[in-house]
Design brief:
rod-shaped, mainly alpha
Length: 268
């Protein structure tokens, strides 16, 4: 369900969550008022007000906690991409000081790795799925090509050490990237957010007011605020899915660096 919502265009998801659902809540308020009547509802105000305050605070704490967790995971995904791309750029330039054979080996292994990330891993991650071993073979080949530079007379120990460190950064960043793609909002937490929002809005149906339009408007605005929080949480929970996603342009830039004939998709 999360993936279905997050995979929608942001405008469509916002229209459904922030406009249509609050509109439905307003309709329910008007329906309940007409069927039950003001006199039967107004007697709930005094007792229900205290309970509603407790419910509102509990739901606010839950949503705040989840939004912070989702934002941290989203930020971690972008940081992992930046770290991986930076290390790959560095590894590419360090390989330039190697003899032709070693340089070609590192550059070739890098090209295979980047292609595997773009063509295999990212499509899975953009569907909210992960497969940790999708490009393990190319990652191992990259390590072997780095270690092969140890036999090069032109490669100093300092350069080799730096290249090995860059490899470890790539492997670590890749692990963090794949972990972030799983999202931090488990199905149980997702349903807690949805059901909590429905209960919080539904609680307002038990209140009575002589000014029905104002009461309906307040319920609609409350629903819009709650659905805005749900929209933000869901759209950012899977950092690689949908319109609100991390920037993946660094990988295309890396492929262009390795293969100058490559042109990223888009307008010429």
């Amino acid at each position: 369900m999360q993936i279905l919502v997050a995979d929608l265009p942001a405008f469509v998801a916002a229209l459904i969550l922030i406009v249509l659902i609050p509109g439905l809540a307003i309709g329910v308020v008007l329906f309940v008022h007409r069927r039950v009547g003001f006199e039967a509802l107004v007697v709930n105000n005094e007792v229900a007000g205290f309970k509603y305050a407790t419910l509102g605070v509990a739901y606010a704490v839950l949503v705040t906690f989840l939004m912070v967790a989702v934002w941290e995971k989203f930020d971690e995904a972008q940081a992992a991409i930046d770290d991986e791309a930076t290390a790959l750029f560095g590894l590419h330039h360090f390989a330039d000081v190697m003899p032709p054979d070693q340089r070609a080996g590192v550059h070739g292994a890098m090209a295979d790795y980047i292609n595997a990330v773009i063509d295999t891993e990212l499509p899975l991650m953009q569907e909210g799925r992960t497969r940790f071993g999708a490009d393990s073979e190319t990652l191992q080949r990259l390590l072997r090509s780095v270690l092969d530079t140890a036999t090069s007379d032109a490669g100093s120990d300092a350069v080799l050490e730096t290249m090995v460190e860059a490899y470890h950064t790539i492997a670590d960043a890749r692990s963090r990237r794949i972990d972030a793609a799983k999202g931090s909002l488990t199905p149980i937490l997702w349903w807690l957010v949805v059901l909590g929002g429905l209960i919080t809005v539904g609680f307002t149906f038990f209140f009575g007011s002589a000014n029905v339009p104002a009461r309906a408007a307040m319920t609609g605005l409350l629903s819009s605020v709650i659905m805005s929080l749900v929209f933000t949480t869901v759209m950012m929970n899977h950092p690689f899915v949908g319109d609100i996603a991390v920037d993946l342009g660094a990988y295309e830039a890396l492929r262009g660096l390795i293969d100058p004939t490559f042109r990223p998709p888009g307008p010429a």
